[in-house]
Design goal:
There is one protein chain. With about 30 residues, this protein is α+β, with helices and mostly antiparallel strands. Helix content is about 10%, strand content about 25%. The chain has 1 helix and 2 strands, in the order ββα. It has one helix spanning about 30, and strands at about 10-15, 20. A two-stranded antiparallel sheet has the order 1-2. It is elongated and about 30 Å long.
């Protein structure tokens, strides 16, 4: 991750509806 710090800014969200790399953060709401 030190070579690609942008990856740290992309949280991985796992819910019963699916899994996604959420960027922008508003994308999390689509899975909740």
């Amino acid at each position: 991750m030190t070579e690609n710090p942008i990856l740290i800014q992309r949280p991985i969200v796992v819910t019963p509806k699916g899994t996604a790399i959420c960027r922008p953060a508003e994308d999390v709401k689509k899975l909740l």
